[in-house]
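Per your request, structure below.
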C-alpha cells in the first residue's frame, strides 16, 4: 500500500507544530481523520440535515435511511449476524455502561462475581465497580505476567459457580497485547458465562469477526477508527438484547405510552433513546469505507512493519525501556527513559513536532502492577511511516541531551 498517498488524505499533516512537520503517534488516544470523513460530516450538515425516525418529509427519510446504512456497514465490518445487534451510543464507554447496567440489573446479586483483567482501561473497570458498590458484587482480576500477557490458567482458576460475566479487553492500550479472546470465550461458554469485549483498540488495527469470536458483547468507538467523535458501537447478540431491560428512557425507544403502562420499541430502537448523533453516525460509514479501501490485511501488515521498526530503533537508545513484551503485539509502545518523567518526555518531543501521550493512559491497575506511576506511549496508525519513527528517535535523543543523559 502507498503510505504517502494515504497520509496525503489527512489534512492535519499539512500542519506545522512548532515550525516542524507533525509526527502523530497518538492514535490509541484518537485517530486523525481523512478528508473524505471531514467532507461527509460537512456535507450532511450543509445539504442533508434532519433528525431521524420521526418526520416523514424527504430530508428526514433520507437521514433515516443513511443512518441505517451505517448500521448495515458496521454489521458487515465486524461480521455480526443481524442489523439489530448493532446499537449506536455516544462512545464505547457508554456501550460498556449499557451492558454493565442492564445485565447487572437483571443478573447480578450480592456476592456474584465479575472477572476482568489487570490490563483493563478504566472504561472496562469503573462500570463494574458501580455494580460492586450497588449490588455488593465481587470483582476478580485475571493477572498478567511481566510481558503483559494475561495468564490464562490463572483466569480459569478465578471462575466459580458465582461468576456471572467476564469483561476483557481485546488489545491493550499500553502494551499492545492482543488478548486471545476466542480462547477466553470458549473457556467462559463451557461454564455458560457471557463475555464482554472492549474492542476500542482492536477494531482499528486487527481483523475483528464477532461471529468467529462468539463473544456476547463487543464495544468500540468511531473516533479511533478514523471517524468522528460522538459515536460508539455496541454489538450484542440478539438473544441478550431481547431479554435485557432498556438503558435510557425517553423518546424513540418506546412503542406505546399510556398512563399506566409503557411498551418499549423493538430492537435496535429499544436502546437508542432520544436524539442520536445523526451526523456522526452517518459520517462513520465513510470511515468504514476508508478502512475497506485500504484493506484490513494491508493495514495490519503495514502497522506491524512500522511497529517492529520502532521497537528495533528504540531498543538501541540508552536508558529507554520498553514496557511489556507480549506474545502477540499491535502498534502500541509504552516506554520510559531513566531519569526523565514521561510528562517531560512528551513536552520535549512536542517541541520537535512529535505527538505522543504520557501518563497512566487510564490504566492505573496495570501501572501499579508494573510498579510504574506513568509511561510515555507512541501508538501507530495507518498514516505512520519509518520516517516518523526516525524523527521520534531523534527527538528522544534530543530529550536525553537536555537531561544530560549518557
Amino acid at each position: 500500500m502507498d503510505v504517502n498517498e494515504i497520509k496525503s488524505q489527512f489534512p492535519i499533516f499539512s500542519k506545522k507544530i512548532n515550525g516542524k512537520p507533525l509526527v502523530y503517534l497518538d492514535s490509541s488516544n484518537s485517530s486523525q481523520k481523512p478528508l473524505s470523513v471531514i467532507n461527509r460530516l460537512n456535507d450532511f450538515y450543509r445539504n442533508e440535515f434532519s433528525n431521524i425516525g420521526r418526520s416523514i418529509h424527504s430530508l428526514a427519510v433520507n437521514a433515516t435511511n443513511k443512518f441505517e446504512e451505517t448500521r448495515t456497514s458496521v454489521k458487515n465490518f465486524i461480521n455480526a449476524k443481524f442489523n439489530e445487534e448493532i446499537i449506536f451510543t455516544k462512545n464505547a464507554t457508554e456501550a460498556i455502561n449499557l451492558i454493565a447496567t442492564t445485565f447487572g440489573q437483571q443478573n447480578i446479586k450480592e456476592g456474584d462475581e465479575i472477572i476482568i483483567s489487570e490490563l483493563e482501561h478504566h472504561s472496562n473497570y469503573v462500570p463494574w465497580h458501580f455494580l460492586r458498590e450497588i449490588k455488593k458484587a465481587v470483582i476478580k482480576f485475571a493477572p498478567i505476567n511481566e510481558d503483559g500477557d494475561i495468564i490464562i490458567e490463572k483466569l480459569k482458576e478465578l471462575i466459580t459457580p458465582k461468576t456471572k460475566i467476564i469483561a476483557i479487553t481485546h488489545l491493550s492500550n499500553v502494551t499492545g497485547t492482543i488478548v486471545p479472546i476466542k480462547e477466553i470465550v470458549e473457556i467462559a461458554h463451557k461454564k455458560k458465562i457471557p463475555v464482554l469485549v472492549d474492542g476500542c483498540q482492536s477494531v482499528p488495527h486487527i481483523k475483528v469477526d464477532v461471529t468467529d469470536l462468539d463473544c456476547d458483547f463487543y464495544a468500540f468507538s468511531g473516533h479511533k477508527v478514523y471517524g468522528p467523535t460522538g459515536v460508539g458501537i455496541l454489538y450484542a447478540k440478539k438473544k441478550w438484547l431481547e431479554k435485557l431491560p432498556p438503558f435510557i428512557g425517553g423518546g424513540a425507544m418506546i412503542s406505546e405510552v399510556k398512563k399506566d403502562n409503557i411498551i418499549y420499541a423493538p430492537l435496535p430502537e429499544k436502546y437508542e433513546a432520544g436524539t442520536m448523533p445523526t451526523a456522526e453516525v452517518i459520517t462513520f460509514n465513510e470511515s468504514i469505507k476508508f478502512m475497506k479501501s485500504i484493506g484490513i490485511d494491508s493495514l495490519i501488515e503495514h502497522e506491524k512493519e512500522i511497529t517492529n521498526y520502532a521497537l528495533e530503533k528504540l531498543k538501541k537508545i540508552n536508558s529507554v525501556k520498553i514496557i511489556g513484551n507480549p506474545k502477540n503485539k499491535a502498534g502500541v509502545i509504552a516506554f520510559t527513559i531513566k531519569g526523565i518523567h514521561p510528562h517531560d518526555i512528551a513536552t520535549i518531543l512536542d517541541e520537535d513536532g512529535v505527538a505522543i501521550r504520557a501518563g497512566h493512559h487510564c490504566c492505573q491497575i496495570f501501572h501499579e502492577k508494573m510498579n510504574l506511576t506513568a509511561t510515555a506511549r507512541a501508538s501507530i496508525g495507518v498514516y505512520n511511516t519509518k520516517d516518523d519513527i526516525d524523527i521520534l528517535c531523534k527527538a528522544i535523543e534530543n530529550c536525553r541531551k537536555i537531561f544530560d543523559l549518557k
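The first strand starts at residue 16 and ends at 17.

Regards,
D.
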